[in-house]
Inverse folding.
């Protein structure tokens, strides 16, 4: 079954300073939506509003034409990867996998060289890159129809970024995925649709040169 998430008329301010103004976003099963933007433009804010954990002055979120004010409260609907790690430090890696990964998918989850290297460790023993990689895999392996990833490439080596992108491509066969990150080149490789968040609005990006024209990239970065 195909699912469609639509977010419309999103308005958000902090201390009377507008951050998002009349945002519209659509994501369907098989979509990998990339959202670029400079620091402070509201990328994380937008994902939290879509997830339902952050209030907005105005928002209209519907999935398959049903309106949801707090999508995160619905089982297997939307999963969210925040910028900060979410697994308690006193957990073991194995316990986190048991709790977060559906039983029928755990064998596939362990089919990964890094996961097998760290599976007997405690969360507090992991490096920043190992922990981020684990976080990303846990969220992507969820049963959620939509996955929101806030800076999934942070602290991760280029080789592991490639592994994450391969997993995103695999999971997008059954999910819609929305990603924000500053690693624009990694995001460009997999995004089926790309937006730039600028001046409180989202702009559809058709080609890389637009990112220069709109002030996100320098010309020598092409």
């Amino acid at each position: 079954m195909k699912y469609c998430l639509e977010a419309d008329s999103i308005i958000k301010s902090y201390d009377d300073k507008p951050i998002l103004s009349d945002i519209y976003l659509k994501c369907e099963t098989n979509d990998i939506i990339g959202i670029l933007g400079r620091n402070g433009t509201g990328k994380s804010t937008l994902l939290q509003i879509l997830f339902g954990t952050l209030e907005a002055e105005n928002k209209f979120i519907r999935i398959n034409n049903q309106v949801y004010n707090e999508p995160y409260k619905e089982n297997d609907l939307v999963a969210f990867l925040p910028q900060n790690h979410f697994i308690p430090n006193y957990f073991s890696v194995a316990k986190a996998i048991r709790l977060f990964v559906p039983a029928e998918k755990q064998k596939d989850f362990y089919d990964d060289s890094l996961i097998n290297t760290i599976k007997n460790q405690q969360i507090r023993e992991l490096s920043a890159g190992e922990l981020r990689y684990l976080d990303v895999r846990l969220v992507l392996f969820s049963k959620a129809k939509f996955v929101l990833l806030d800076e999934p490439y942070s602290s991760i080596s280029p080789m592991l970024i490639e592994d994450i992108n391969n997993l995103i491509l695999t999971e997008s066969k059954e999910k819609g995925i929305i990603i924000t990150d500053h690693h624009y080149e990694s995001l460009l490789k997999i995004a089926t649709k790309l937006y730039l968040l600028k001046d409180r609005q989202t702009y559809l990006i058709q080609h890389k040169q637009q990112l220069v024209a709109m002030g996100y990239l320098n010309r020598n970065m092409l």
Notes: The chain has one domain: 4-221. The chain is about 30% helix and 25% strand. Helices lie at 43-51, 93-100, 106-109, 113-118, 128-140, 158-171, 184-190, 209-213. The CA atoms of residues 73 and 111 lie 30 Å apart.
